[in-house]
Amino acid sequence: MTKGGKGTSSHISRVNTLRTFVPSLAACAVAALLLAGCGKHNAAHEHNPNAAASGPISDSGDTGLRPKPGATVAMGDPQHGAAIFSQNCASCHGAQGAGGGIGPRLKAEKSRKNYQQAIAWIKNPQPPMPKLYPAPLSESDVNDVAAYVESL
User: Fold this and answer.
1) How far apart are CA 141 and CA 78, in angstroms?
2) d(CA 94, CA 104)
3) How many alpha carbons lie under 13 Å from residue 34 in its C-beta half-sphere?
4) Which of 24, 54, 82, 105 is 20–30 Å from 8 (CA)?
5) Do 136 and 88 meet the contact criterion of CB atoms below 8 Å apart?
6) What backbone phi and psi angles, to 5 degrees, belong to 60?
7) What is the reported pLDDT for 14?
8) What homologous superfamily is domain 73-151 in, according to CATH?
């Protein structure tokens, strides 16, 4: 083989190595994002439940019980939902749900999901969205976030 032929063979070998390395690297990056989750949770808050400012905003008085089948859920508080969204969701969905992270844009989400569907999605999301209910989010927190998302 000529010198150029060896270079071509070496180049093909490097390309084949990259073809196996890059997907593995991408899979590791996705796994790291999933493990980290979109929500930010402070370990100190777990040890001190009274550490209000350091952990996620939550309605600690909520029982977390699901409503009875057929019962309607009262509309949540969108202002409180905005604060919860800012701490737990904005890192993936962007500020005010405008997008920019790994999560989808949530502006005009009410055209795709009604309030009840938004609650159901927050409680039982599909990956890569992390499951934040029943902890760190309570039932009323979920209702508040759903009300906020519906207001976008």
Assistant:
1) 10
2) 9
3) 10
4) 24
5) yes
6) -70, -15
7) 72
8) Cytochrome c-like domain (1.10.760.10)
- Locate 89 and state its tokens: 């969701």
Question: What are 65-107's pLDDT values in tens digits?
Answer: 444 555 566 799 999 999 999 999 999 999 999 988 899 999 9
> What is the per-residue pLDDT for 69?
58
Query: In residues, how long is the chain?
Result: 152
The Cα–Cα gap between 95 and 59 comes to 22
What DSSP designation does 39 have?
S
H or E stretch at 145 = helix 139-151
pLDDT per residue as tens digits for the range 6-59: 557 776 777 666 676 666 665 655 555 555 554 444 333 333 333 333 344 444
Per-residue pLDDT reduced to its tens digit, 109-152: 888 899 999 999 999 999 999 999 999 999 999 999 999 999 99
